[in-house]
Hints:
Layout: H1 5-9, H2 14-20, E1 28-34, E2 40-43, E3 46-50, E4 56-57, H3 68-79, H4 87-90, E5 94-97, E6 101-112, E7 115-128, E8 145-146, E9 151-152, E10 155-159, H5 165-178, E11 188-192, E12 213-217, H6 221-231, E13 236-239, H7 245-256, E14 260-266, H8 270-274, H9 277-284, E15 290-295, E16 302-308
Parallel strand pairs: 10-14, 10-15, 11-12, 11-13, 13-14
Antiparallel strand pairs: 1-2, 1-7, 2-3, 3-4, 5-6, 6-7, 8-9, 15-16
Helix pairs in contact: 6-7
Amino acid sequence: MKTDIGQLLLIFPPQLRGLLGALPWERVEEIRLRGGRPVEIVLHDGDYWLGQRGELITEAQLAEPLSPVALTGCLELVTKNSLYALEEELRGGYVTVEGGHRVGLVGRAIVRDGKVRSMREIGGLNVRVAREVVGASSALLPQLYNPEADLYYRTLIISPPRAGKTTILRDLVRQVSDGWEGVEGRRVGLVDERSELAGTFRGVPQKDVGVRTDVLDACPKAEGIMMLLRSMSPQIIAVDEIGRPEDAQALGEALNGGVGVFATAHAGCLEELEERPILRELVEAKVFQRFVLLSRENGVGTIAWVRGMDS
């Protein structure tokens, strides 16, 4: 499991950086900063609060509230002192920082014509720690590959939040791109809309997504799929968190072009998946040949089951 903690700590102001440095980072999933309230630390095994000396405590009333200065300092570091320059990202409620870590924001929404255009008066931040888990998809790969046809099944990975679908998809892309156990590598086109999968910085992926992978960073999924199909002749398209009508249309174009697909979506089971009209449409159109459900039963990224279209 890899992540550059030193780099991540740089988005926190000095008064917090020293306290956070002592955390058991191999277990940290999120750090939540809320103005006037204690700093919450979300670990694999539960939620804690940051103590005065950087220790983890279970009682919120024993922790020091976060000062407005510390919250403002973190916001300035995350946005590089310019909320205005990040208005496009703020419409989605988060900013992706170097390393692929996602920082969610809450505050006062600026709405025009019924749509959120930006955000002001930020009252809280949620730093989600992005990690590479090399080999996370190794047990899954043989179930997604047809050796007789030398093809990968078009696959949808579903999971509830924080169950590891992005981690699994990243490693799946890496192994398929590089090749594994005698299977030749494939050209993979990766649409990384939230800059989480590849963590691209100045055009170079900070995460290992494979030698044959071409990344479209910070690009809307549907548009990115079409751009890659037109320009990079991918053998496989990979996208995270599909669910919009335009996603379905673009995936249909990939299918018509004979291109493989790896995608993820939020759902706790197939029944939940089919409650979402666009995803139900993709299921009924048989865009996907394999479905993978992840859980946290034996840790993040647990493979609950793999099913074929008719299973």
